[in-house]
Design goal:
The protein has helices spanning 2-27, 47-55, 64-70, 92-100, 102-125, 143-148, 165-173, 190-194, 203-208, 224-232, 263-267, and strands at residues 31-36, 58-60, 81-83, 129-134, 157-160, 184-188, 213-217, 240-245, 254-259, 276-280. The protein has 285 residues and is of the alpha/beta class. It has 2 domains: 27-163, Tetrapyrrole methylase, N-terminal domain (Cobalt-precorrin-4 Transmethylase, domain 1, 3-Layer(aba) Sandwich); 166-284, Tetrapyrrole methylase, C-terminal domain (Methyltransferase, Cobalt-precorrin-4 Transmethylase, Domain 2, 2-Layer Sandwich), CATH 3.30.950. Residues 9-27 have low confidence and may be disordered.
Length: 285
Amino acid sequence: MDKCRHMSISVILVILTLFVPCSIMAQAKGKLYVVGMGPAGPDLTAPRALEIVEKADVLLCSPRIPERFAAFSRTIDPSKIAFDPWKRVFDKKANELKRSDPGAWAEGVERRRKEVQKFVLEKIKDGKTVVMMDGGDPCVYGPSLHYLLEGFDPSLFEVVPGIGAFNAAGAALKHSFTPEDVRFVLLTSPQSLFGENWKKNDDILKDLSKYETTMVWYMSLRSIAKVVAKLKKYYASDMPIAIVYYAGYPDKEKVLKSCLENILRDVEKMDEKWLGLFILGKCVK
């Protein structure tokens, strides 16, 4: 009886060895990682993010990401890059269309979202690891979650946080965003506060001016004159302002300190008209 029992157990173990791995493999699925690559290059990218990129089967990224890595003598395997997911969303033609026909641009973004999600789902079903490389931190004005992955099953992807531009800007200023008496830090943009067409009223800004607040404005340099005009309605002319250009870029980073009264005059001396964070508050003194 004992011999038969041992033989039966052995047979069961053999069957499990043969079939359980196959079953597990049949159920295996890939995964999508949305990875924050930091504001400049791999020196400000989390080690875990770099490891995930290194082991990925498929990469989705803009051409700027490999260029940033190359500047630090690092390479991204070009054979893994499937395509630029932002084509027809943020390229030159898309930006022109957004200005001339916002409705048509929105329709194009929706089509691109469906294309990208279909591609990613197919790769996940094939058991592949897909990495969507986002600049900065994906959760702070990162376009991947907002534009491309809206409605995508959250169980199929993981977000790996990165260093946001505001972190790098704070480091450049060498000041805390929360000095004494500051009630909170506000991360915003002109579009968030006033709408794409600047038609939203500025009651929020009026209310904010009653409190000690550090305001960090993304995507504001191209409309800085409008932003300053709004701020001048509620803030004193000597309100400290800083603009951190190329936050986190070791060879390009510049800090301009000014005040509300003089900021428009001072920015005219700078060459960069896009890549910079506008920061208002006592923290920039």
